[in-house]
Amino acid sequence: MRPPITINIHDSHIGIWQDDARDDTFRPEIYGALIRQMRERGWSIGRDDRVHRYHRCISPDFRVGSRGTLLCAIHISGRVVEVEFWSTTAKQINRNGRRYDFDKMKRMSKLDRLRVELEFRRIIAWLEGLAPVEVKRRDDADLPPMKRIEKGYAESWHSDKALGRPVCDYDYNRKSADGRLLEHGQTVWIPDSKGRMLRGTAFYHINNMWWVIAGGSLFNESCRQIFAAMPGDLRRKRNERARRNRLEKELQIAVQRMDYRRAEILKTIIFGTEQTYMIWARDHRAYYRSQYAGYSSDTAGAGRYTKAEAEAECRRAPHELEMVGPDGKHVSFDTKVEAA
Question: Could you tell me the end-to-end alpha-carbon distance of the chain, in angstroms, rounded to an integer?
Fold first, then answer.
């Protein structure tokens, strides 16, 4: 009898886990067979060109596919196969593509959601014919915040058996934005998506992440985004990152329209009189976008940084990054390259 199979479903993602399966049989009997079945159902599945280009040795472990308005990514790692779906018609939020958006199922049209659910049922029915199957769904967005936290604690293997929740063992995982150490259950303040400060209660999650219940909603925030003491001037928005992104986007639009007077005003608002620099990522052969998020293959979409910002980031990973000056000259901080 084959070892039991565990299936985890969350949003548009389905994960297949077989704990005691043999590595030499799991790939052809689960990963390979899944791809063949999806092709028989009309999916066009092939290699992931990005992985094949930069990491050819692991390219066989990654596949991407399409069928109508749906796209998918399939990945095998050990005795785990993961399949993720997203729709080309969904509203895109993440600049790097719909694949990286949260709540993919909610963003899909009703028809695409039904198609993804049908794929889930077909995969489960097929696996039930191979071995005993246990299905776990993590779609708990409709639960009250405290119930969601309790459910997460109950399902997490990081939870301490005596306390029934994870324990933060390292101070750097509970050091707040104002330099204090967070305690499980204490009152804290966090900025919402608009930068407005909310008062709530913090509960430890995992690593440096903390659950915060504030304003009737549940937030999952890094300790570096949480204030242990009430910040001064609560009416001021903490949205510097969003503001910078918006201004840089307007700057790019002004340049594209050749409205150089507006572009000069926006540049002064963002950077003052400082010269601006770009960051080149050698491994991606592309520039950083604004605020270190994403990549652009051309300078029009590249983010702009002060010299201090660009140099600090390039020194963080000198083997991968180069600073590009206003004159277009690349500056490397990789001492090994300079020595050679």
Answer: 59
